[in-house]
Structures are given as C-alpha cells and as structure tokens.
Amino acid sequence: MNLFIYLFFMVAFANFLKVKISFFDYLDEFLLFFLMCWALLNTFVDELHGKRTIKRVDLGLITLTIILAVWCLIPNMFAVLRSTVFLQLYTLMVLLKFVIIYLSSRKIFMKRNYAKNFRFIKGFLYSYSILCLMIFVINMIHPFMRSYGERFGIHSLSYGFSHPAQFATTIIVFTVVISYFDYLYKKQLPLIYLLINLLLVVSAGRTTSTGFYLFTLIVLISLVYFKKIPFYMYIFAGVPVLIIAKDRIIHQFFLDNDQARGILVRTSIQIATDYFPFGSGLGLFGSHASRLDYSPLYQKYNISGVWGLSKEQPAFITDSFWAMTIGELGFIGVILLLALIMMLLLNIINYSKGTSIDKFFIILPLFYALLTSPIDTVFISNGIVLLLFAVIFMLNLNLHYYKKTEFKGD
Hints:
Layout: H1 3-12, H2 14-17, H3 27-48, H4 56-78, H5 85-95, H6 97-108, H7 118-141, E1 150-151, E2 154-155, H8 164-186, H9 191-204, H10 207-226, H11 231-254, H12 260-274, H13 288-292, H14 297-300, H15 321-351, H16 356-372, H17 383-409
Antiparallel strand pairs: 1-2
C-alpha cells in the first residue's frame, strides 16, 4: 500500500495508540514538519526542472496565510507581556497547521490513485465498525468499558481512545470517505454502514458529533437519491443539530455559569477589548503554550482559581479554539483567520472536479471542524490532521475518477 494509506490509518488511530505509546501524542507536530519539508523539497526540484509549482488558485491562500502570520507576530515584537520565542513560534505553526498540511499533502499525495487500495480499506473499516458495535452490545449486557457519563440514556464510551470525542471524529471521517467512494463509483450510499456508525457516534455521547452526523445523513440521502432538494429540506436537516445541541450551547456560552469553556470565551472577549487591536499575543491565553508556561493573564483576569484553569490543574485551558484566537489574535486577527478558513474551503471547491455533490462530500470534514470549534480545539489538535487527510483522500479519488472519465470520453 501507499505511504499515504499508512499515514491515514496512523493518524486515525493516533488517539487510540497514544494511550500506550507516547510518541503518537506528537504525531501531528511530526507530520506538520515532515510534510512541509517534503513538499518544499518537491517544489524546489520541480522548479529546477522548469515546472510550474504554485497554482493560481493557491496564490490567495498563501498570501492570506502570510498576512495572518505577520499579524500574529506583530504584538510579540513590542509587548511587555509575552511568551518565550519558541512557544510563540510553536503556537503560530500550530495555528496555521491546517493550511500547511493541506497544501503540503496536496502537493505530495495527488499522483497515485488510492482507489486501487480501496477494497482492502473498505473491508477493514466495515470490520472495525462491526467489531465496535459488538463491543457496545456486550458492554450493554456486561459493562466492562470505562463510562464517560451518561447521554441519550446510555453510557458514553471511547472504545479505547483517550476521549469519546476522538472516537466520534474518527467514525465520522471513516463514514464520509467510504460514502464518497460508494457515491463516486456506484452512485449510491452504504446505508447499512451509515446506520451502524450512527449507533457508534450516539454511543460516544457527543451531542455536536451526533447532531452533525444526523444532519449529514439527511442531506446526503436527499442529495444522492432525490437529486434536487428544496431549500426547506436543509432547514429540516439542521433541526437535529439544534434539538440535540441547543441546551448545551445555551448553558455553556449564554448563561453566567462557572464552567471553564464559557469563562474562557467571555474572558477572551475582554482580553481582545483591553489589548485592541492585536490581542494579547501568541502563547498567552487558551493555547497549549499558555499551559506549558502558565500565563499571568489567568491571574490578571481572576480565573486562575477556576477548576481546570489553574496552574496546578490546567486541563481545560485549551477547551475552546475561538477563546484562544479571540484572546491571542484580537478581533481583527479572528476576521483574518475566518477569511483564511473560507479561502481554504473555496480552494478545495475550485480544485475539485465534478458536481456540487462531489464538492459537498469533500468539504464535509472541514465543516465538521468548524461546527465543533466553539467547544473544541480540533483546528489545532491532531484531529485536524485526520480531517485534512480525509479531504486529501477524497480529492485524490475525485481527481483520478474524473480524469479517467474525461479520458474515456475523449
């Protein structure tokens, strides 16, 4: 099998493997630099051979990435309160990881057709889902797995992953990739596989993941089997997300509660106001760097005593991606970041071929990242690598399928 397939599975199960092997906790950082260096080397070699290396569709994305990087570094040049240079650069690379890995992976992994390996991949993923379903049923009868609380009337399970949310993300990625392959080559969806994985996502007990899965299921079935969909159907598809997630969203972000995530978001807005226009600077609020070198801002804004935000117990400091970006980049920096994400989505849409259904499939992983970003740090965690690899995987299938179709047409 191709290196990409091995890396895809390695990234998919990184949060499972890191429970026993600590190296996998740093796999995303390793891949960030490995893929970036590999892509730069390929670009250099192509330039030597007179090949065009940077596509016109990528110029805007690269330019905006540079602008955002400069914006992030400006306050660290003259601010009195700052993190170490290493932690600033580390936070910057982690923040821009989603763009770097996308462009690097697309440069490296587009030549070989991964559809040739898909019979094995599909068999493995089907077997994995059936195995997890069997474990779920056995655990219902004779509980033996760790419970992460109770939601939807059942115990939330992680199936060996370090957290149920990571398992849910992995199942969602597998579902989207398998479904796109079946749509591409059979013009249908693997309905039994979709239903099995729905049960698995529900058993993980993540409200946002479950809502997203139901939304995706309704939209995909409508797109694939009914072709033309009235606008109201999209509203109907969004109802599960609203019903399942609304109570949690209201409780955590709109009520004056003492939960870490809500406090982080409210405090980040205050920091962005006090440190307008640049924010506090990299590595000082809501980021992993601010946990490694405990930031004085937590004491300054009187939240160092909150459970999960203290120096002794900093586990919840990175609980919200947008709290980090609002606090560290300021309001203008957040606008630049949102523009960069939207430009990435447009880049993927423009780069891919086929119908709007193809393009919808391919951007689904990033849509999931956006949906979960207020209550998670998926954009800067190892989860974003898996989501981007899913995008690259589907782009590869897409380009080779339509290239073959065009060739046959000629």
